[in-house]
Specification:
The protein is built from ten helices and eleven strands. By secondary structure, it is α+β, with helices and mostly antiparallel strands. The strands form two sheets. Strands 1, 2, 3, 4, 5, 6 and 7 form a seven-stranded antiparallel β-sheet that branches. Strands 8-9-10-11 form a four-stranded antiparallel β-sheet, with no helix packed on it. β10 and β11 form a beta hairpin. α3 crosses α6.
Amino acid sequence: MDQVLSQAEIDALLGGISDGVIETEAPEQAAAPAEVKKEVKSVDFIRYTKGKKEKLPALEFIYDRFSKSFRSALSLFMEKEIEVNVKPIQYVEYAEFIKTLPLPTNMNIVVTENLKGFFIIIFDAKMIFSVLETIFGSASISAPKIEGREFTKIEFNVIKKLIDLVSLEMEKAWAPVYSIRCKYSRSEINPNYITMVAPEENVSLCEFSIEIGDITSWMKVCMPYGVLETIKSYLISTPSREDMEMREKWFANLRQRTMEVPIEIRAVLGKKRMPIQEFMKLVEDNIIMVDRFVNDPIDVAIFEKMKFKGRMGIYKGNKAIKIEDTVR
């Protein structure tokens, strides 16, 4: 009972607490939450920007034309009805693209001379063997196992013929948009041997589904986007059929009208420079010595400009000039 506080002591204690004279025990602080570790990843903004490519409608138009013409050409080459269908164009990194290719594969580099670039044609092995069996007279087309072996010399010869066929039809398909000339460069069976394209570079990839009998195979056309950017102004709009027909008619009319333009052609047998006094003294039977011998070539001028070299002769009883060389 001696430990019980009186009313006065209780009032003094409460007053000291309220006035701050007596320090009270600090309340326990809540435990700080555990620090969450954040993972930081670097972002390559240049690579991200490269991945967002502008669509090129004219390129889709080109590949659509190519699929139709290549179907006819391949059917004629194999003497068999072939189906060729084009799939939508994709823009992917070259490193990601080559991961999808089987080994061995058939990659063919075709150089576009006036475009200052190249594209890669990849054939499915089943397509090559289907063409082989058809060419050598097989009654039925099978799907052979091709994994784990390389192509033979005969097979590469067939591939070369297919490349020539693709190159010719590709030139025709590009003609309404931009004139290109295709030239076969080389073939590779390992994608890693083609170092002309950087792994991080974006490429335009178009796949063609090819049906030969009961066998469905494919062909892919891979083109670096950097090459297409050099002619992007030609590829951002699709030429309409009306524009193409009008352009063809315009060129045909221009060619016809050009062929009807008259030109002045003059064969210069020789020249002589003399003073006026000597010229005024000339009379009948005078002989003028020119700067040419009888057997020297004759200059043929068009509108006073020398364009050809020729020889004097007789044609159907008339004096004529035979063109032998062009003056450049």
